[in-house]
């Protein structure tokens, strides 16, 4: 069976060597040696200003909202993974949905200002599929209205925008290191921020507020990464350039083989060095998509409908804004299989099946 993604497994001896080090140290969590080593290496690899490793990619979103959003209204996108919206509601804030751009599929920045009210405290938007939002426009709006910007950059490992690492934009950016993501620690994630004050604010919040064993620096939760997770990250990191290069091979092949007369691909924003994290295709109709999905499934190929249904339709939110572009596009988007080691032959077969089904 060919699935939409496949977790990269580093050579087991390399993982075991890190596990041996854990056994020697007898230290499993609380900012251990391997966690410090991974943080150091990632900071340098990504050219990040500040980063805090965490146990998944959702808690850092919640921690940033907890620090910034003050149970207010949060401007957000309906086209993302559910964690973007559920985090807002979990933190007792109100999601205010703004529609997406039909080509880039990120928030339509021209519609943000009209959604801002006196209760708005933050903007939480997703660089969906690793495609950057219009960061400059969002920056101007946020400064004008004194709002914090949190980027859900879960898909963005390795992406740069205008020559700068994408995580170095916004007050906070968050990446996921889940097993299905491009770089992974099994479960894991990281919070990135630009200044020392925000770094400390987020650091204490992710470890119960502990400032040493006896003092507390405000309220906190437990989002610490463990040494076992960091061991996985350290074993995967040496392969990350190969992983991205191999995914580029697959994407280039799809670009060449698919027939784009009845399909459309994602438009990547200018000045972006992309990471080939997903291969979404947009059909002319949902029925074309369903027909194609059925044919692929019959051939043991399992694409995924990332991201459907849209988040403004979740039963625990109340949306009154117009999100017609999202409603129109989300039912027509399918992500094709894309992972390190996906064979050329299989990419050819998948492309042929897609063409046959809508041809
Ligand atoms: C994967 C993902 C998350 C959540 O990350 P976890 O590490 O699974 O908690 C958040 N937002 C988006 C857009 C994602 O794709």
Summarize the structure in words.
With 359 residues, this protein is an alpha/beta fold. It folds into 2 domains: 2-237, Aspartate Aminotransferase, domain 2; 239-357, Aspartate Aminotransferase, domain 1, CATH 3.90.1150. The chain is built from 11 helices and 17 strands. The strands form 5 sheets. The chain has a 7-stranded mixed sheet, with helices on both faces. A 3-stranded antiparallel sheet has the order 8-7-14, with no helix packed on it. Strand 3, helix 4 and strand 4 form a beta-alpha-beta unit. Helix 3 packs across helix 4 (82-90). The structure holds pyridoxal-5'-phosphate (PLP).
In summary, what is this structure?
By secondary structure, the protein is an alpha/beta fold. It has helices at 12-25, 33-46, 59-68, 82-90, 135-145, 196-205, 227-236, 240-257, 286-298, 324-329, 344-358, and strands spanning 2-3, 50-54, 73-76, 94-97, 120-126, 148-152, 160-161, 164-165, 172-176, 189-193, 210-211, 215-216, 263-265, 272-273, 280-283, 301-302, 333-335. Helix 9 packs across helix 11.
Order of helices and strands: EHHEHEHEEHEEEEEHEEHHEEEHEHEH
The termini sit apart by 24 Å
Write down the Rg: 21 Å
H/I helix tally: 11
Percent in strands: 15-25%
Q: How many strands, which pairing sense, and closed or not: the largest β-sheet?
A: 7 strands, mixed
Provide the CATH superfamily of the largest domain.
Type I PLP-dependent aspartate aminotransferase-like (Major domain)
- Topology-level CATH name of the largest domain: Aspartate Aminotransferase, domain 2
Number of strands: 17
State the share of residues found in helices, binned by percent.
25-40%
CATH class of the largest domain: Alpha Beta
Distinct ligands: pyridoxal-5'-phosphate
Lateral strand order in the biggest sheet: 2-10-9-6-5-3-4
The averaged pLDDT comes out at: 98
């Amino acid at each position: 069976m060919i699935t939409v993604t496949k977790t990269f497994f580093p050579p087991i001896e390399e993982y075991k060597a890190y596990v041996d080090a854990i056994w020697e140290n007898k230290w499993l969590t609380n900012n251990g040696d391997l966690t410090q080593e991974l943080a150091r290496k990632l900071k340098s690899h990504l050219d990040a200003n500040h980063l805090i490793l965490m146990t998944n990619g959702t808690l850092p979103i919640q921690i940033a909202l907890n620090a910034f959003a003050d149970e207010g209204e949060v401007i957000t996108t309906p086209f993302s993974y559910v964690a973007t919206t559920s985090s807002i509601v979990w933190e007792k804030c109100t999601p205010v949905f703004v529609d997406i751009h039909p080509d880039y599929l990120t928030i339509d920045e021209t519609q943000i200002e009209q959604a801002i009210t006196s209760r708005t405290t933050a903007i939480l938007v997703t660089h969906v599929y690793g495609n950057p939002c219009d960061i400059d426009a969002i920056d101007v709006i946020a400064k004008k209205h004194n709002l914090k910007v949190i980027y859900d950059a879960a898909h963005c490992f390795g992406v740069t925008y205008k020559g700068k690492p994408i995580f170095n934009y916004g007050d906070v950016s968050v990446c996921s290191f889940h097993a299905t993501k491009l770089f992974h620690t099994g479960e894991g994630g990281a919070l990135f921020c630009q200044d020392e004050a925000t770094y400390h604010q987020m650091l204490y919040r992710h470890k119960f507020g502990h400032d040493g064993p006896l003092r507390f620096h405000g309220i906190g939760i437990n989002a610490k990464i463990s040494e076992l997770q960091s061991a996985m990250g350290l074993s995967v990191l040496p392969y990350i350039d190969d992983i991205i290069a191999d995914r580029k091979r697959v994407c280039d092949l799809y670009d060449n083989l698919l027939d784009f007369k009845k399909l459309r691909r994602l438009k990547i924003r200018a000045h972006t060095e992309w990471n080939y994290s997903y291969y979404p295709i947009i059909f002319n109709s949902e029925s074309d998509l369903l027909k194609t999905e059925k044919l692929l499934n019959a051939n043991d190929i399992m694409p995924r409908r990332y991201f459907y249904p849209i988040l403004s339709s979740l039963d625990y939110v109340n949306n009154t804004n117009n999100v017609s572009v999202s409603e129109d596009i989300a039912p027509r988007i399918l992500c094709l299989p894309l992972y390190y080691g996906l064979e050329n032959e299989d990419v050819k077969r998948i492309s042929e099946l897609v063409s046959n089904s809508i041809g």
